[in-house]
């Protein structure tokens, strides 16, 4: 410790000498300029602010150290020197113990960031064990020493923040032994410590009761309600509700779900593991949001398609009603419901109804197209991000004068309900692109700081929604709950009954495929759509990283990252719109689809995120891989095998195949550069054992034609789609 102190003094003395020399030279230069006669004399005052950023490695931890020396008065012999240490990486134990020393070292944000992200690399039980061990051997010579007082204050700060922000961590421990061991070790000399002790003992008592009487604490709301009776569903009843009332009720549902959202459930490391065995209950707050999104989209589909005997003009009124509801959701800054309605209207079963769209009011169609543009993928979805940046914490939506006059009297100040997929994508991309650990095995805490920037945006928007007050409308909620769930094949059957296939569609806006399924917490295979890049224009490393990644991944869908895409049977077809992978009948929208960029060699770092699945018999699980311009086929195959928990040394036994639209396949050369060999028409890849059977319907194409084949066929496919 003495040597470290001597080194710090030597560094400070060295910096002080340099600053004084620079100051003397600077002042002498000014004196020479003054001595030189000139018709115009300009004196520049430049106070010196020298900052030194270095990395210091101690036993099990790496700090980023910032030493600042600010020049004081010219005649002052001393200069102000400040030093702060931010933890960059370290072992699990050192990261946890840094909670108790972060404030004294100038790392003031560490506690908040750690508590928001620690579940990515450790567990609550492990953190409590490390902290309790430290409390058993506190620093300082006695209770009254300055060191002990500072330590006790840090302990109270850590546990007070933890209990206030994340009480569920303690309630989910399962048994009270850790809390009973911790409570007596808390400081004895403050009222805040006494309050903490009482809260911990109260939680320990509740855990004991649950352990002794488990049946008394079971969730009585866990039962599943019977499916709605389709014979009692009245699709046209939606016309009897004002659009403003429908939007208000939808905003009520979405706001309540968003406020209950646990931000760390969106972390890529947790979200990508949601389908593993034994983790069915994780990320429950995200799953609830997905189910609501799918339910609303299904309601739009069912109400527009179910009454097959309606006249064309009557069905057009249903489209106009939902367009009006979408506009009201926009006025209430409910972007989640807005996106669900627009996606449903862009889905193929509704999009293809040529006669119905022809009879729809032109002004309503124009408004619908304007709303669709909010989610355009142009410039990395810049329009939707700009709206969230402008209206994130504002009282009202930023509408034009006509809409303001229309909504001003009936719209109260409300929070913003964002489309959650935007955050899921950002965090998943971060988790994929940034390593969890350094080469020496230390946990990369800089990655957690970047993730926290996204989580902080979620919490900021949540704070704007907490004071919103709504009144439930029983009549609408009864109708909303009575909507039956349409399977994919049912929606197409109903659409074909309304208008026979084969007639051209007049719509210029191509249909989209957005919705994914989350039927329940135990068997769901979920995915969600979102925009890439960050929500606000904060000058942060996260935005810089995501902007580079999204140049090569214009995908708003988290479904391209670690989702189960096992082909469903007719008996188990999801009860929502469609999966987000392109199929013959569901094509993607230019405004909301998952279209890769045409130029994958754009400016900036050459990288793309692709998704690879293995050709397995028990279902296919996609894993995301970051591919750079330097990656050869064996490297990508090895990474994919490792992500699928296979032996990466077996890479020579596999071949990498790009899955193209219309069932085509492109075999990547065994020693080729994957980044330049792949086409821009798809980010889906298959890892297949060499000599394996080619799936039915697949037609591999040679690598010689890979560069031109998609471009040659693209125009032809567009012509075919217009005849659908």
Automatic annotation (TrEMBL):
Region feature Disordered, mapped onto this chain: 557-605
Molecular function GO labels: guanyl-nucleotide exchange factor activity
Presence of keyword Coiled coil: no
Pfam families cross-referenced by the UniProt entry: RA, RasGEF, RasGEF_N
Gene3D superfamilies listed in its UniProt record: Phosphatidylinositol 3-kinase Catalytic Subunit, Chain A, domain 1 (3.10.20.90), Ras guanine-nucleotide exchange factors catalytic domain (1.10.840.10), Son of sevenless (SoS) protein Chain: S domain 1 (1.20.870.10)
Biased segments, Low complexity type: 572-583
Alphabetically ordered keywords of this record: Guanine-nucleotide releasing factor
Location of the Ras-GEF domain: 242-501
GO biological process: Ras protein signal transduction
Domain N-terminal Ras-GEF intervals: 83-208
InterPro entries for the chain: RA_dom, Ras-like_GEF, Ras-like_Gua-exchang_fac_N, Ras_G-nucl-exch_fac_CS, Ras_GEF_dom_sf, RASGEF_cat_dom, RASGEF_cat_dom_sf, Ubiquitin-like_domsf
Domain Ras-associating: 606-692
Segments of skewed composition (Polar residues): 591-602
Gene Ontology CC entries for this record: plasma membrane
Protein name per UniProt: Ral guanine nucleotide dissociation stimulator-like 2
Top-level taxonomy: Eukaryota, Metazoa, Chordata, Craniata, Vertebrata
Gene name for this UniProt entry: rgl2
